[in-house]
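The freezer alarm interrupted the setup, so I double-checked each line after restarting. Inputs confirmed:
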Amino acid sequence: MTSQRPDDETFLRSHISDLPRSIEPASDLWPPIEARLAPRARPRMSPMFMQLAAAIALVAISSAVTWYFVRASVPVVVVAMAPVDRAQLARLARAGDVMEEGLGSSSLAPETRAVLERNLVVIDSAIAESQRALDADPGSPVLAGLLRAAHRQRVEFLQQAARLPRS
Amino acid sequence: MRPAVLLLALSFPVPLVAQQRIDRRMAVSSTAAIRINDLVGMVRLVGWDRDSLVVVGELPARAGQLYFGGSPDAAKLGLKGTDTSSVVSSATLEVRVPRRARVSVRGATVSLDAGGLEGNLEFITTAGRLHLEGAPYTVTAETLDGNVEVAGPVASLRVRTAGGTVVLRGVRGDLSVTTVSGAILIGGARVARARLETVSGEIAWKGAIERGGTLDAQTHSGDIELRLPPAIGADLELSAPAGGISSEFTLRGKPGAGGTLRTSIGDGGAAITARTFRGRISLVKQPEVDPNPAAPGGISGTSQ
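Predicted 3D structure, all chains:
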């Protein structure tokens, strides 16, 4: 290494004149750069922002599910004589799953979450029992109505949970 | 007292008073919208004949600070800065509102003891409970684990709880009650429409249904007991696939596919539907149902 000072003009000029006017970048240069840039490109969110985003998402999901069923005019009281509609049952089950996932990321107190889970177990047990009964008697409108009611109760319960005041 | 001891005693600061005395008042209109947020402990909500909103009582220091204000048509009060590390249950507040005010009460742990209201009441809580007497025009109550007790001819009542027990006496008009595991116990009712739904709780009904009205009771694993006036006319649809049906009324026909029995008693009129998967359905004649329509009835004999 030279002892010459880097701000010495003569030293700099002699070295600059040796440099090429332009350099073609190597063809394999971009992938490693991209790999190093990618993590920094992700916005960093604070825990409060994450909670807010989760709450907004939960409300949006709840509203969307409510809108869906209101639009679909699903009868909520007279269910016993309705024919078996497996597609509707599947939609109800999926709606409940989506809402439960949304609730999982929201900021609920541990004791509240415990109560929710305890009650979801009760509802899920009823759904499983009704499903088994319907599997054994697939044409029964009564069993289909009970199963549909259990799925709807799950959705409505999760909607209620989404409305709970946060302490 | 020795001077040294006195000096030592005076050198320690006097502890702050643990309770805050609350006394706030403002003028509001007779039908004002009043929002009460995040209160704690037991709140007594009273409807009175003055056009003013009053909050009096005591709050523990860790209950936070009361905010209070608004316009004559829309007022708001509540707590901020509450220490949420533990439940503050020792707060005692009384809120007085115009009888016909539209009141909304929300709070994670607040319980409500309400009376004298004639407007609309909405109560949404997580762990709190509701005790209401009187005849608000509409009541909406949602609680996750708390009990709900309402006595009075509420015109429109909607209750939703998961594990809480719901006890209603003397209700009128439209009724909707939903629970997950909590029992639904209703006495002295006379309704146009009632929808009672639970997953594992029992349903006990004692009351009348208006001619042309509907009663729909559904539970997955609980029993359903319907105590009805002997002279009632109703079209029945009863389903108890795994339980069974018993009746003090003469029921013509037998359960068909899926354990469903469709029949009528009297000259028909009201529509009664009851469904339970594992539970039993019982129809009982109840002569003393609702002897005085103006007074709340009782629920003796119908509880578990």
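Quick read of the result. The two ends of chain A are 66 Å apart (CA to CA).
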